[in-house]
Structures are given as C-alpha cells and as structure tokens.
Specification:
This protein is of the alpha+beta class. It is built from 20 helices and 17 strands. The protein is globular and about 90 Å long.
Length: 605
C-alpha cells in the first residue's frame, strides 16, 4: 500500500510527525553548513499531521469504520499525505461533484442524512482555510465517500445480525482501491453510482421508489375490509357487500330472485376477485384471505416506499453476477424459476419451510442430482420427534419386526451405528446421544424425498426434492416443510438441468426414474442456486407486485435499516410460536397412534 520510491518526502514526513503543525508557523530554521535549507515545508507538515490524525482516530474505531480508517491511512501514506478534495483555497470541483451525488442518496434507497459532508460554502471564492480546517474537511469527505460506497454495496447492516437465516456473503470493496478510483476518475459522481447493484430489478425498484415519492396519491383504498374470515364463493357474509363496493361491482338483479342479495358471493364477484388477484400477482383462487385482503385495502404510500427500500437493500446483498444459467427460489412467492441469460424460461410452484422451520436465504452451487435418494433423518428431527417415541414403552406391542419400533417399521426407517445396522430394541435410548445414530429411509414409495433430490451442499442442510404429498402444491400458501424446498414437477427440472449440463434428452431421465435404483449424477459444471426473499417485484409492464412477508423478514430489515438491529433465532420467526408448535406436536403424540403422528411429521418435511 505504501510508496516505495525514495523521494524527499520519504525522509521529511517522519520528521513532520514529530514536529506536528508547529513547523507551519516557523520560518526556515538556521542550520549548520551543508544541511538542507529547511527541514519541512508547510504543505508537508499538513500532510504529516493528517497521517498522524488518521492513526490516532483509527484506534478508537471498530468494525467497518476501523477498516476504512486503516484504508485511508494507507491511501494517504502512499500519496505522502497529498490532499484529494481540498486546498488552502477551499473545496475543489472533484469534491463538489462527489458531495452532490452523496446528497442524492435518497434516490437510491439510502438516506442522505446518514452522511456528514463539508459545508458547500467552502468552495466559494475568497475562502482561506487554516491547516486544521483543511485536514478536517479532507477527512470528512473521504469518510463520507467510503461510507456511501459501503452502504451502496449492502454494508449498511450485517444481514446475519438481523437473522442467521439471512446468510449473505457481502462483497465490500477495498477502501484503498475506492479512493484510487475516485482520484483517477474524470467524473467522481459516476464512480459513486457505479457501486450500486447492476441488476435490472434494482433499477426497476428504484424507479418505482421515485414514482411513489413524487406522487401525492395516499395509496389507500377508500373502501376497506376489516379483519374477518376468508371470503369464499357461495358463502354469505356482511363483508361480501363491502367487497363488491371495493371492486366497483354492482348488485345484479336476477329474474328468478325477488331481490338480489349483496352479501352473497356469486359468480360475477368471483370473476372480479380472480381478475384482481391476477393483476396483483396473487394466486387467482377467488378466496379473499389475508394476502388478498391486504392487497384490496392497499398499503399506505409510506409502507409501500419502505417495502421497496427493503427489497432494494436485498439486491445489494446479492452476488454481483448471478450466472448466465441459474436456479432461483423466491420464498415469499413460493416459486422456482430457471434463468438463461437473465430471462426466466421455466417456472413452477414449490413448498418452502414453515415459519418455525424457515428456509434460509443464501446463494450456493448445485453440484449433483440424486435419483431415488435415501432420506437421512436430520439431527433436529431425531432429537425432537423420534427420541420421545424411543424412550416410551418397550412392550412387545410397541415393537415391530427386526428390532424396530412399529413407527419405524411402518415408515420404513432403519438405524445404523458406525455404518452397521443395529437392533434398536437393545439400545437404552434414555442414556445415549441419538445424534450418534444414523436414521435413514431407503428409496421407495414411502420415501419423503420422492424420486429425486437436487443437492447444493450447504451449512443449513437444505436442498430441493420431490415429495409424495402432491396436494400441498394446490394451496395458495405453501409454507409447510422443515426448511427444504419441494418441487411440484421435479422430473421436468431434472430434464432442464441435465440437458443444460450434459446434453441429455428427457428419455435418459425417464430411464433413471424407471430403474428405481439409487443413482447419483455429478454435474460437470456446478449451477448457481439463489434462494431469495423478495417481497416486492416490478414486472415487465412496470407494475409493482407484492408478496406476503411469511417469515417477518421485511419488518426486521426495516428496523435494522433504522438502526434497531436485534439478533433473532435461526428461523427468524417468533420463538413463542415455535414453542407453541412443539406443544401441539406433544399433544398429538398423546392423542394419536405413533404411525399417524409420524405420517403427519413426514408431510411436514
């Protein structure tokens, strides 16, 4: 980082660090014959004082600010303390261009008030700055530049401090390289803008933000539906009349009915509701549940703006390059898409984790696909769901064949220890650590993973797979799993991915499925996988679509951006709710047969 050229400044700066600014007010000192005419110039003394101030202030800073202070120290040391933004006559044009751009931070979903800038009047003719003021102004603007770029690249908050399930790897730029770019650029403002995400959706959201900030429309429907039951076709309810009014649908007189019933949910209203749902990006099922009710009532302009900013922030956390060919699961939509050259060409429904077992948000690479997989039971399920049964009665009625409890027999589960099958009846499960034991389900019709799984090994132990529980894909809200993502048409996904990676025709996948044997296919080139959580999206027609915040991440991110960071549980969900869910399972354990309880458990996986 430091300059290695042996210039005169290389020798005088250490002297200046000892002399401080005292040299600025002193004439050239009398020296012995043969000595330099003077020890240090006024400019060099200012530069030396700047470096010493950076060193002193850096000791009191922490985290990102400490790294930026160290970067500034290295940058200015390499320049021998030469100023970038200011001279004795005030701010230069480069400084004004950078300041003007930072002042427009709100246009990019940031907050201009978060950045401390020098007084613009310091650029006016006749300005004369003393050395202390020069140093203060120089460092104030340099720190504002680094902070702005850190915020532009997603470093405003640490995602994992909001929730451990927001598992993003931030790519924050090197402060030294940032400052070098600023010095070498003809247009510093363009350099600052260049650090914002290049993803097209980020710019679409930014335009939606500007449009809503410039609008005087409050954005709230005049007719609002209060909280109430889901309104379904054929039912009669007082809120149906409000629904008609909200959609501008008149009560149609029917010749067979003496008087029309405005509180009856009829066919005409069903068509209007479905049209509204389709326009808003909701499942067009005609049921007015919580999501449709919120969409009908509308959000306030402030709430819409906040949602846009929160989703813009998520784009800052995404990798700069998503890949020419990649897979994306957007959790709030409960949809999987495969993209080629930035355009989706395959879309399908998925089931994601329930709030107490939230699917994590992260990026990784798919490395292999397994046909007819084994299901290896996770430790969490072994501890929380299986162990209570194994500690129960050891009577003969409790045990099935092969030394296994009936619940394991009926669900085709086996147990191994150190790679060898064991007789579960001979283990005192109240005394052992169940995590040491391998519980697994071999391939077959009862396998909870179905006939294929898509693997991108990660610390969360989640992946994509088939499921025998096909009915769940018909639900408008499909947050039902233990965290993994279940695919409605996994065969088609396998065909697409293996055609891309290996050039295989669909018939090859068909033969692997028909064989019924466990078979792993390693991908020649790993495929990027992005598990995202976007609750706002601008479509190709410029319409802002909104999706339900099923895990409450929007609220947490908004609070964090407002400076209220709170570390929460792994699931990112409310702990009391998770505890209540476990209590419900305990009640079922007492009320239901073991087989029935495990059947429900596997539906949740």
């Amino acid at each position: 980082m430091f300059a290695t050229t042996m210039s005169r400044s290389t020798f005088v700066l250490p002297v200046a660090l000892g002399l401080g600014l005292g040299a600025l007010s002193l004439p050239a000192a009398a020296v012995e014959p043969g000595a330099p005419d003077r020890l240090i110039s006024a400019e060099e003394a200012v530069s030396a004082r700047l470096l010493r101030r950076l060193a002193d202030e850096g000791r009191s800073l922490k985290g990102r600010e400490h790294e930026e202070s160290r970067g500034l120290a290295a940058f200015y040391a390499a320049r021998h303390g030469k100023m970038v933004w200011v001279s004795r006559t005030g701010l230069n044009k480069r400084a004004l261009a950078a300041m003007d751009e930072i002042a427009r931070a709100d246009d990019y979903g940031l907050r201009a008030r978060d950045f401390t800038l020098p007084d613009r009047s310091l650029a006016e003719p006749g300005t004369v700055l003393d050395p202390d003021r020069m140093i203060e102004v120089e460092l104030t603007l340099s720190r504002a530049v680094l902070k702005y770029i850190r915020h532009a690249r997603g470093g405003r908050v640490e995602p994992r401090k909001i929730s451990r399930n927001l598992d993003y790897d931030l790519n924050l730029p090197d402060p030294v390289k940032v400052m070098e770019r600023m010095v070498g650029a003809d247009d510093p403002a363009a350099v600052l803008r260049d650090y914002h995400p290049k993803h097209p959706q980020f710019e679409r959201l930014r335009q939606a933000l500007l449009a809503r900030r410039g609008s005087s429309e409050p954005g709230v429907a005049k007719v609002r539906l209060p909280n109430g039951p889901a309104l379904k076709p054929g039912m009669r309810h007082a809120q149906v009349a409000l629904l008609r009014k909200r959609l501008g649908l008149p009560v149609r007189m029917n010749l067979s009915t003496p008087s029309a019933d405005p509180e009856r949910y009829d066919e005409a209203l069903l068509k209007a509701v479905r049209a509204f749902q389709k326009k808003r990006g909701l499942t067009p099922d005609g049921i007015v549940g919580p999501s449709t009710r919120r969409a009908l009532n509308g959000e306030s302009r402030a709430a819409t703006i906040q949602k846009i900013i929160v989703n813009m922030e998520r784009w800052r956390w995404m990798p700069e390059k998503l890949g020419k060919f990649y897979v994306n699961v957007n959790i709030p939509e409960q949809i999987i898409r495969v993209y080629r050259n930035g355009k989706p060409f395959h879309t399908e429904r998925v089931v994601v984790g329930k709030p107490s077992k939230a699917t994590p948000v992260f990026s990784d690479q798919m490395e292999f696909i397994v046909f007819h997989p084994f299901w290896n039971v996770p430790n969490s399920i072994k501890r929380e769901e299986i162990l209570p049964y194994l500690k129960r009665s050891t009577t003969s009625s409790f045990w099935g064949g092969g030394g296994r409890p009936r619940v394991l027999v009926r669900n085709n589960l086996y147990v191994k220890l150190n790679g060898r099958k064991i007789d579960a009846s001979k283990v005192d499960w109240s005394r052992v650590d169940i995590r040491r034991y391998h519980f697994y389900q071999p391939p077959g019709g009862k396998n909870v993973l179905g006939f294929v799984k898509f693997m991108f090994p990660n610390k969360h132990s989640v992946y994509m797979h088939d499921t025998p529980q096909r009915h769940l894909f018909n639900q408008p809200v499909r947050a039902e799993s233990h965290g993994c993502m279940r695919i409605r048409n996994p065969r088609r996904l396998a065909e697409i991915l293996l055609a891309h990676d290996r050039g295989w025709p669909p018939a090859t996948i068909g033969r692997l499925i028909a064989a019924g044997k466990n078979h792993r296919v390693n991908l020649k080139n790993p495929i990027p996988v992005h598990i995202t959580y976007f609750t706002a999206w601008v479509d190709d027609q410029g319409r802002l679509r909104s999706y339900g915040d099923i895990y409450g991440h929007d609220r947490r991110v908004a609070r964090a951006l407002d400076g209220k960071v709170l570390l929460v549980s792994n699931a990112g969900a409310r702990a009391p709710r998770a505890k209540h869910r476990r209590n419900r399972y305990a009640q079922r354990e007492r009320q239901q047969s073991s087989a029935e309880f495990f059947r429900r458990l596997f539906q949740d996986f």
